[in-house]
């Protein structure tokens, strides 16, 4: 259901680890992926949303309020194809399933701990429909344990986040450098690292 | 292609009539500060719809003003609808003052058009006279028009015309493009077309359909069909429609409007949920109420485009008010025990999407259906999309609108806003800014002086939750002096970017100072 996996055009890429392959390559249709807690997790999410919607596919974000949509647009997201459901209420399971049926990527912040039966059901739904279920936990949580009992097909763990451009009383935040390690049982080969640098003038991540 | 004819019975200026004013009186209806209806005599004196109240009073100092009251409009119209329903069953209320009914069968049954017109006009007049809200001498005659389509029939009623079958397009051609605004509620389209030199419906109809669709979008394409005299195709779902109904019981029986109306909204949401799960939206609803004694009243209501649950609930309230508060014999003798809603006419949601695109791809359609389904589950405000707007504060830069609703308001996303922070924008924008504390190395609070400069260098910040973070870099101020011309709304804000580090990882914060208080507006996560 995701449009054919392809790399984004990379204006002004500067020495990233894998210039043509961003993390969105690992969003295989039918899989369940997760973003680990760590610094820069939200930027990683926005980068993935930009890659998905930039490709004419649709994404929904369930249970995540306060998402910086302008940042997403700067990274190349098409805001018309992002549907936000900040408060799904008690029927979050049904809502997530309904959206997995019709959209390419569904981002879910699970409300508290989930029962294994529920998570298996959602993962199966994603598999059947060829969509991607992306688990995005609370950013404030500092435990390594996701509130998702099943281990995902791919885990994107942000490990290092730094900003350039700000000095002591001068400058401004210009560039965000984020290192992400992807691991998981579905990954062919060992874990991969991505360095994402978002350049405000260039537009997309490198 | 059907050969059914449509009859429209119209009371022009119904709201003033319902308020008790005759066409020779000087009276007008106000909604808020503006005139939304007036009598013919007032119009002759220069009163116009859309004017401010004061303007209208300038041209006509003796003008009597009535506030907008849809309940009064509906209650007043109810006797007319009841009388017409006696003569032919499928009377549809487009809005109080305008009803539409299928004419072919009735013309055959009553032996000719002239006879039908006379019967309907008489029935309406005696109903209004009996109801007593309007002085007998001033009870108006309804204007009746007959044509192939609803749109044409309402316009034909202005001069009491019958448009011969097949000549609808020719008849509509001479009407002004402004009818798109008054009849179809598309004022922006009307203005745009007028600016492009298109003044009449005929000129609009002459444009190629595909060009209208791709240039102006779905709503305009629908209007284009109407201008050409075509009706939207009804969905061939007759069998399935019987299933599209919901009902609820009221226990104890409702004797007052509010008690029954309270149940209406969840019931409407059930109905719309039922429809949206099948990819349908409701264009005409039948609202039926039954009392303990078995008395039943039903009315057909047409939506401007499609119904949402609020509008259906509002129609229920108006309809029940008309019935329960009737002064005559039609008033029920017991409380209402059952409320039923039927989706009397539906349309496929895929066709009705007020698209942001002229054409929708299959992916878009599929996504639309899924989002509609969820909207049916959670309500119309649960799904939002973002539109970039202008503004300085990060929270103002993006407006969240319920998905599927057209965007309104100015789009200043590309305009410069001095004081606005440049890209990259923060990944998290807190809808409720948090109070935080920022202190210097010595522990003293960091303040902002009259020019927006910090009094000392910030060293540590404390967020909600109590944790202290070391500040490793910072910059600012980005100043905003907002609404300096309005002493009550004047705000002076200074924004700063602060960078903290923890285990080598850096997080940026966008903070704003107002007075002496620091707030966290956004986080660069």
Can you offer a commentary on this structure?
The complex is a heterodimer of chains A (206) and B (525). Chain A is built from 4 helices and 8 strands. With 206 residues, chain A is α/β, with parallel strands linked by helices. Chain A has an 8-stranded mixed sheet, with helices on both faces. Chain A is globular and about 50 Å long. Chain B is of the alpha+beta class and 525 residues long. Chain B contains 19 helices and 19 strands. Chain B has helices spanning 14-18, 40-44, 53-59, 70-87, 104-110, 113-131, 150-156, 168-173, 179-182, 187-195, 201-206, 209-216, 218-227, 238-241, 257-276, 309-324, 349-352, 362-378, 394-397, and strands at 6-10, 27-31, 34-38, 64-67, 92-95, 98-102, 143-147, 245-254, 280-291, 296-302, 336-348, 384-388, 398-402, 428-439, 460-462, 468-482, 491-502, 505-514, 517-524. In chain B, helix 4 (70-87) crosses helix 16, helix 12 (209-216) runs antiparallel to helix 13 and helix 15 packs antiparallel against helix 18. Chain B is elongated, with a radius of gyration of 29 Å. Chains A and B meet through helix 1, helix 2, strand 3, helix 3 and strand 6 of A and helix 18, strand 12, strand 14, strand 16 and strand 17 of B.
